[in-house]
Write a structure and sequence with these properties.
Blueprint (H helix, E strand, L loop, with lengths): L6 E9 L7 H19 L4 H15 L18 E7 L5 E7 L5 H11 L4 E3 H10 L8 H4 L16 E6 L5 E7 L20 E3 L3 E7 L1 H6 L2 H12 L3 H16 L4 E7 L4 E6 L3 E8 L5 E3 L4
Parallel strand pairs: 3-4
Antiparallel strand pairs: 1-5, 1-11, 2-3, 2-6, 5-6, 7-8, 8-9, 9-10, 11-12
Helix pairs in contact: 1-2, 2-3, 7-8
Bound molecules: aspartic acid.
């Protein structure tokens, strides 16, 4: 099997205001990307690397996913996540999880241990805990939305990762606490395969932003299919869907990270300063940033 150029791209949500992101988020992204690059260099599978990267972000408490998840209008954390493997075409997702420690691992259990793609709510969560998903003992004290004066009180911090491994396999994962103050039971784009997350044999994508718009426009899959069917570059397809459809027409905010089978790294954002990102590949050193314009 041909050796591909391994690549990892990670995001920590859209950035809407200059200077409000603390150094700790970028340091975290750097650490996660560095570890993921080492794992890919050693021959790890893309889906394993994506899950580990997202777990690192979920456990940090610094972003709106896992430990640092935002609360809904009732003051309760309800988390969404999904994982897709490009080579197998399999995916797993969870929505409105209140107790699982790592929603991305729960999504993997859905993919690997059940005949389903999406499990939701308290009954879905009970099923997953029964299948081995770790639950936190006291959700009200474990989950603490990240807040400080430098951090925006709402919105950003959804996390995601896309990877291309040495064997040419692609994977994508996304995890979020969803929009702060959302109605109880609201599910965003992050656990919707084709909207917030997508991977096939050519592309892997993870999105962040106004989830309703990303669902309505099937953003992640639309970018991949536009690139495939039209023969345009992945960056052109992402710029069109994010910039024109989400940005200009919908007047919504959002961003996407993506990688292609050939190792093309794509970052695109609309109506925001950028996306908190990090990437590295066989030939590219670890790079982190948050502004795209
Ligand atoms: N897309 C996420 C959601 O709608 C939120 C975000 O990315 O900031 O749940």
């Amino acid at each position: 099997m041909a050796e591909e150029r391994y690549t990892i791209v990670v995001h920590g949500g859209v950035v809407t205001t200059r200077g409000r992101w603390t150094h700790s988020q970028l340091a975290l992204i750097r650490a996660v990307v560095t570890q993921a690059r080492d794992q890919l260099a050693a021959g790890a599978a893309a889906s394993d690397v994506v899950v580990q990267a997202v777990v690192g972000l979920e456990d940090s408490g610094l972003l709106n996913a896992g430990k640092g998840s935002s609360r809904n209008a009732a003051g309760v954390v309800e988390m969404d996540a999904s994982l897709m493997e490009g080579d197998t075409g399999n995916a797993g997702a969870v929505a409105a999880m209140r107790r699982v420690k790592n929603p991305i691992k729960a999504a993997r259990i859905v993919m690997e241990e059940t005949p389903h793609v999406l499990l939701v709510g308290s009954t879905g969560e009970e099923t997953l805990i029964g299948l081995g998903a770790e639950a936190v003992g006291d959700p009200a004290s474990y989950f603490k939305p990240y807040r400080d004066l430098e951090f925006e009180p709402t919105g950003p911090g959804t996390v995601g990762a896309v990877a291309l491994d040495r064997r040419g396999r692609l994977a994508a994962g996304t995890s979020t606490g969803g929009t702060s103050g959302k109605l109880p039971g609201r599910v965003g784009d992050s656990p919707i395969i084709g909207a917030g997350t997508f991977a096939d044999e050519r592309y892997a994508l993870s999105a962040t932003g106004s989830g309703e718009h990303f669902i309505l426009r099937s953003v992640a899959r639309d970018i991949a299919m536009r690139s495939e069917y039209r023969g345009s570059s992945l960056q052109e397809a992402a710029d069109y869907v994010i910039g024109r459809l989400i940005g200009d027409i919908d007047q919504a905010q959002g961003a996407v990270i993506a990688v292609s089978r050939s190792g093309e790294i794509v970052l695109a954002a609309a109506n925001v300063l950028g996306v908190c990102y990090g990437y590295a590949s066989e030939s590219k050193a670890v790079t982190v940033g948050m502004e795209l314009r």
